[in-house]
Each structure stands twice: as structure tokens, then as C-alpha cells.
Amino acid sequence: MIECYSCGYEFEEDDNEVECHYCGRDDWGEGFYRCEECGALVTYSGDEWVCEYCQNEGITEEETQMDDDDDDCFMLFCDEDDEYCEDGIPDVNQGWVGEHYG
Fold first, then answer.
1. pLDDT for 38-62, tens place per residue?
2. pTM score, whole prediction
3. How far apart are CA 39 and CA 54, in angstroms?
4. What CA dihedral angle connects 93, 95, 100 and 102, to 10 degrees?
5. Residues in CB range of 83: below 8 A, 6 or more apart
6. How far apart are alpha carbons 86 and 41 in whole angstroms?
7. CA-to-CA distance for 43 and 5, rounded, in angstroms?
């Protein structure tokens, strides 16, 4: 069981969500829980969950528009220090993905 850091409500482990309630983007990690008692967003470890895209503050419609010619747009998805990124652009062809399918 996972306990809400704010009010102590206990979650079933398979009740997790992945879509941020502020900006609608999917969490790329394990997901989070939304407390039914107080509305807090909680991580698997019982801490406050914060969206990697909008930090729980929402993002503007302009920020969600992707322009194929503008590499800076990809920075919404790709951290400069991410080992799977090249020049701020996510490398979606990792190679290892195909290796693990029979």
C-alpha cells in the first residue's frame, strides 16, 4: 500500500495514473496516484508527484505546438543532459528496442 503524504489515504498499487492533470502529458516513469480524499498527486514512494513538463502549473497551448523545423520545441521532452538525447532532440531509435523483440 502507498500512503498519501498529505492526508494518509492508502492507495492500491494498481490504481496509478500516468496523465498529468495539469497539462495532459503522460508521465514517462512509473506514474502517480491521485488522492481521492484531498486531491494530492503522490509518487510510488509516497512523496508529492511533480510533472516533468509543467511542474504541476500547466503549460500554454503555444508551448504544446511542435514545429518540425524548430529543434527547441523538443526541449519540452528532452533534458540537455539526457543520455538518450542528441542536441536537445530525443533519440527515438535506440537500437536496443528492436534487439529485445523475438
1. 999 999 999 999 999 999 998 765 5
2. 0.55
3. 18
4. 90
5. none
6. 32
7. 9
